[in-house]
Design goal:
Distance between the termini of chain A: 52 Å
CATH class of chain B: Mainly Beta
CATH architecture of chain B: Beta Barrel
Low-confidence stretches of chain A: 5-21
Strand content of chain A: 15-25%
Low-confidence stretches of chain B: 4-20
Mean pLDDT of chain A: 87
Largest sheet of chain B: 10 strands, antiparallel, barrel
Helix content of chain A: 40-55%
Structural class of chain A: alpha+beta
Number of helices of chain B: 1
Order of helices and strands of chain B: HEEEEEEEEEE
Mean pLDDT of chain B: 86
CATH topology of the largest domain in chain A: Immunoglobulin-like
Radius of gyration of chain B: 18 Å
Number of domains of chain A: 3
CATH class of the largest domain in chain A: Mainly Beta
Largest interface: A-B, 33 and 32 residues
Number of strands of chain A: 10
CATH topology of chain B: Lipocalin
Radius of gyration of chain A: 44 Å
Shape of chain A: rod-shaped
Oligomer: heterodimer
Shape of chain B: globular
Number of domains of chain B: 1
Amino acid sequence: MTWRALLALGVVLTVPRGAGAQAPATYLASGIRAYQDLEFDRAAGLLRRATTPGDGLTVADLTRGLAYLGATEIFRSQTDSARGAFGRLVRADPRYRIDGLVFPPEVTTVFEAVRRTVRAVGVQLPDSVTFRAGQPGLVLDLFPSALHDVRVEILRADGSVARLVYAGLLGDSLRVEWDGRATGGAPLPSGRYVLAFTSLDGSGGSLRVIRVPLAIALTLGDTTPHPAPPAEAALLPERAPTGPALRALLGGVAVGLAVSLGPSLVASESDLSPTRFLVGASVSVAGLSTFFALRPGRPIAANITANDRVRAAWRADVDRVAQQNEVLKRAALVSIRLGPRQVVEREGT
Amino acid sequence: MSGVTARLLAGLLVLPGLAPAQVVGARGLIAGMRTTTATAAADLRLSGSAFGFEGGVALGPAALTLRYLEGSVRNDSAAIDRDFAEGDVTLWARPFRWAALGAGPHVRSFVATGSTERWLFWEVRARATAGLWPRAVDAYLEGWAAVSGDVDVPDAFNSGRGLEGGLEVAVGRLPVSVRLRYRAERIGLGDGARRETTEHVMLGVGIGRL
């Protein structure tokens, strides 16, 4: 290896790493100069290199480069290439409009024709936001390239829809707001979700989706525990117990027998009349009647009614606490951190 | 009815300033009655009816009751007709809700033409109550024994005992109660030479519960 080759290798190795990152911007500036100098073939090459996907241009420089590339291709009579460049331009920034003072009408006409056929939505989002659930906290600004159907949804990790924020035709810019609640009205629990903006074709198929990861943290206020159901001790027996009926039966029969047979222990049988049997039988029948009236297991209507009142009062308490808790939950603090957006296009668009 | 007992009952019923724990009751009585006087020579049975009243006042676990009956008994075949009156006063202690012990005098007189028999016994009593229907129907059994007696008949008092049982029913929500009872007692005189057996079937209706 000669000393010249070694010198050249040293120069290459000592070039700052940032120099590579500046190349697309340099190509862009050179391409625009070539366009202005009417050197369209050279401009096309430079601008194509500058706008190569993933080359690190800012969105503003990329759209500028694509606008000049489209115009260049028109002047090179490469209309399909021009349409391709303008299509990329519209998808990169659906709000972009060709400046009529910079480009001639034949360029703006082609661009407008392309813009009307490309269905894409631009969105403007905050990096993070904190708000009280139920308030219009997350503000989403939507900018369509052309009139088309758009859906804005909050998706769970499994892809199911937690909340449909907007669905409908979008022809002009639109501001939609999300209050932190799921479809049912309850605040969305803490977790990871996706905010999806879907551009639809005429048959409802998805053309283009912008997916924005959401990290949601829900801070609840202190909720009140539900009141415990009424304890057994607080309720009256709804079925007649065995004790009172049995006591009535035994008491009545015992006293009845004692009245019937006891007097013969006190006096001679010959001195006694049979009337004692009448009274003794009356007492026994009273005991027996009471036993059947109080029969064990008999429903006690008054107690059932009283217990129903106690249970109804408890249920009313539970409902009241649930409502209070629901109010607290609905007023929970929602913190949302939005991640980098990802665009998914249907193939062939 | 003697004036003294009537005034005593009236006084009990109008006791001023009764505390809630105090209970007052009174009821009228109607009774069918039969007495058997058995001697070595013959048995004499008399039957009849009687009317009277009973009343009482309870203060916590203590109670005082009195009872008075008067009427007549007769034996048509023997052409015997006697008026009679009897009463008792008992002081009760109620150690349990279902049991009570009491003691007091029991007097009885039979009035025949030209003579009057007077009987006086001091008796101890025990009563047990079985509630059949809460606060509405009670059955009870009461037994007693005479610990001493004084009779103005030729034979001296020897022994006395008795038994009573029945049913007390509250009438609806009113403070009215009805009591049906059977009562039998036997008094021995001399050395078993004479025995007096008395039976009552009594129906009482009144206010309050005793």
